[in-house]
Write a structure and sequence with these properties.
By secondary structure, the protein is mainly alpha-helical. The protein contains eight helices and no strands. 20% of the residues are buried.
Length: 229
């Protein structure tokens, strides 16, 4: 049984964002403010990475001052924004903190732990084998576990066995991995064609980022409803 109709979730994600745009902006202000120091040094970091991968001397590479502090603030901003977005979709506007940060230590620790788990499980096999395709395969296998991000946001216990049908599993993977990647590549190509540089590409990335947060919560909601039924 398919609990995740792609076309309906695709449209519902944009419809939700359009009808709640004021609240989305409100809960984005604090995360954006504390993320600005890191975002401002991103061009410098990209330049360093390009130097490293092009065979530049590693001895000449010097990381920006306070980079680790900026990175921690950026990650905390990402956690705060993600949790508030999931709560907005699942529990409504009254459940989000607005300009206030997320201060629930247990929730933050669980979110960080799950993020590290997903990151390590998908990256380590590629580092060992040198096969980028393996990252996509592993992510497909563990994609149901990412539903726990929504569960953490709404104070539900983590669940590592979801018993999804293959169609539901595949649709979840398509909505959260394949479709955002395809949209990103499409707008990157379109940006080059129309001569807007990277502006259109970054706008698309921001829109897709919010859309994936909304649709993951919608997927969680539909799967839970289907399981209860």
């Amino acid at each position: 049984m398919n609990a995740l109709p792609i076309n309906k979730i695709f449209l519902a994600g944009f419809a939700f964002a359009l009808t709640h745009w004021k609240k989305i902006i409100e809960i984005s202000i604090f995360p954006l403010m504390i993320s600005l120091p890191f975002l401002m040094i991103v061009p410098e970091l990209l330049g360093l990475m390009e130097q490293m991968f092009s065979g530049g001397e590693l001895l000449n590479v010097q990381l920006p001052d306070n980079m680790m502090i900026y990175l921690i603030l950026f990650f905390y901003g990402y956690i705060t924004l993600s949790i508030n977005m999931y709560r907005l979709v699942m529990l409504g506007e009254q459940s989000t903190g607005g300009f206030m940060p997320v201060l629930d230590v247990n929730k933050i620790i669980r979110f960080i732990g799950l993020t590290l788990f997903v990151g390590l499980v998908t990256v380590i096999p590629v580092m060992i084998t040198g096969m980028p395709l393996l990252q996509l395969i592993v992510y497909f296998l563990i994609i149901p576990i990412t539903l726990n991000f929504v569960g953490i946001a709404i104070d539900q216990p983590s669940k590592y066995k979801w018993n999804l049908s293959f169609t539901t599993h595949m649709n979840l993977f398509f909505l959260q991995a394949i479709l955002p990647a395809l949209v990103g590549m499409l707008f990157a190509a379109l940006s080059n064609i129309v001569g807007l540089g990277s502006i259109l590409e970054w706008v698309a990335k921001v829109v897709v980022f919010y859309w994936t947060l909304v649709t993951l919560a919608l997927c969680y909601q539909l799967i839970q409803t289907n399981s209860s039924a």
